[in-house]
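Um, can you check?
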Amino acid sequence: MEKMSKNLALAAPRGFCAGVERAVRIVEVAIEKYGAPVFVRHEIVHNKTVVDELAAKGAVFVKELDEVPEGAPVVFSAHGVARSVVNEAENRKMIAVDATCPLVTKVHIETQRHAAAQRHILLIGHAGHPEVEGTMGQVSDGEITLIETAEDARTVTPPPNAALAFATQTTLSVDDTAEMISILQFRFPEITGPRGEDICYATTNRQNAVKAISADLDLMIVIGAENSSNSKRLVEVAKRAGAKDAILAADISTVDWAKVEQAKNIGLSAGASAPEKLVREVIQEIKDRYDVTLSEDAIAKENITFKLPSILSA
C-alpha cells in the first residue's frame, strides 16, 4: 500500500540550550563527586525524560529542603531559587550546588541592584513558575510586583512616588513581553530596565525558528513538557505566525496522530529542556508511517557554553 506523502520542516535551533546542558551536567558531576544520592530541589529542568534518567543515576528530586538530610549534597534547579532557600541550605550545613542558569542569575543580580537603589520592581512573568518565585525571592516582600498580562501593565499601581524598574522572566514570548514593556515605558517614562533583553538567547532563537517555518504549516508539533514555559510559548508563536494548528507533546506517546494524519505540511520543534532524542523518535515514527520530504534550515548557530560551578572542581 502506497504511503501518504508529508512535508516535515524541522525548526532550528531547537531543544537543549546551554543552561539546560549545564544543569544536567551539574547533577551528573555532583553524583560522580559525592556519590548517590544527590538531592535536587524541584525538577532540574522541566522534562520528565531528563528527570527520570538522572533519577536512575542517583538523583533524588524533592520539593523542599526539609526533605533533605542535614549535610547532604543538594542541587538547586536551573530555574533559580529565592535567597531564603540558599540561607536554609547554609544553616543546615548542606553541600549546595547552584545549577541556576547564568542568564537567570543575571536577572537576580539586576533585581537586587534595583532594590538596593530603592526602585520598586515590576517583574513580567507567570505566577507560580519556579523562575518567577526565585526572582521575587531575591528581594523583600513589597519591593516587587508581578505583571502577567498587558492588562496588568495598563492597570498596575506602583507605590506612590517610587522610582521604578522592570525585569522579565527569561522564557516568555518575545512579542508579548515587548508589548508589556512598551505599555510600562509609556505609562512610566522614567522606568529603568535592563541594558539588553532579559529573555534568553535560546528562547528568542527557538521562537524565531518557529516563526520562520510556520506560515505554510498545517500543523506544528512542539516537543516539550506541559509545565515548560518556553515550550508552551512555541505553540503560541506557531499559531500567531500562521500555522493552522499547533500542539504540545511531551514525547512520541502523546503526539496527536489523528492531527498528523490530516496534515500535509508539518513542522517540528522542541523546547529548551527537551532532549533531541525525543525529536528523533517523532521524526522516525513519521517516516515509518508516511513518505516524508524532510527539510531543515537553521536560522542561527548556537555555540554558547556555561562553566560548571567551582564547587564541583574543588
Notes: The two ends are 62 Å apart (CA to CA). The chain has a mean pLDDT of 96. DSSP finds eleven helices and twelve strands in the chain.
